[in-house]
Amino acid sequence: MKIDRKMTQSEFGELVGISQPAVSDLLARGVISLDNTGQDWLLSYCLHLRNEAAGRANFGLAVERAQLARAQRERVEMANEVTRKNLAPVALLETALARVGRQIIGIFDAIPVNLKRRFDIDSKEYEFITSELAKARNFAAAIKLEDLDMDEKEILDESEDC
User: Fold this and answer.
1) What percent of the chain has pLDDT over 90?
2) CA–CA dist 111, 130 (Å, integer)
3) Rounded to whole angstroms, how far apart are CA atoms 154 and 75?
């Protein structure tokens, strides 16, 4: 087969091992040009394959399909994690944090009174304990999910600001 002349799509497909519709698609995408010889088509096609192999080609539909498949896989993985109770909606977590915070506040409020009843503490000690617990109570009442990403030093610094 001579490649230094213009070729039909079927001839080129036979040369490189692809179907005539695949050659037509290469023409439509501009990988090869209708006015060129078979040798030019072969060089252009080889360059196209090298670019694809190196990840430099624009795969178009193939890329979109891969992205869709990845998104679907991630959605299914997240649904499985929710089913396993490893993931929960943010609103649910914030509601749970608020409920626990209210319970903690109730416990904190009782500490100074219980200490005063059980131990002989003076008013300065009582005020200090009350003040420190108020800081912790205010911090617990204001906690949000993004606060959970803080390290221990940041939490301590913020609790002193309350």
Assistant:
1) 38
2) 8
3) 34
Is the sign of the CA dihedral 58, 61, 42, 28 positive or negative? negative
Burial of residue 37 (CB within 10 Å: 0-12, 13-18, 19+) is middle
Q: What is the pLDDT of residue 71?
A: 94
In degrees, rounded to 5, the angle at the alpha carbon of residue 15 between the alpha carbons of residues 11 and 21 is 55
Residue 145's contacts (CB-CB under 8 Å, 6 or more residues apart) are 90, 93, 94, 97
Only one residue has tokens 């090298």, namely 50
For the chain, give percent helix, strand, coil, nearest 5.
75, 0, 25
CB contact at 8 A, 129 and 115: yes
43, 48, 49, 52 alpha-carbon torsion, rounded to 10°: 160
Residue 66: predicted pLDDT: 78
Helix, strand, or coil here: 115?
Answer: helix
Task: Say what the pTM is.
Answer: 0.39
Tell me the two tokens of residue 89: 């909606």
Rounded Cα distance between 24 and 86, Å, is 50
Band the pLDDT of 96: cuts 50, 70, 90.
confident
Q: Is the pLDDT of residue 60 over 70?
A: no
Residue 98: CA count within 13 A, CB half-sphere: 6
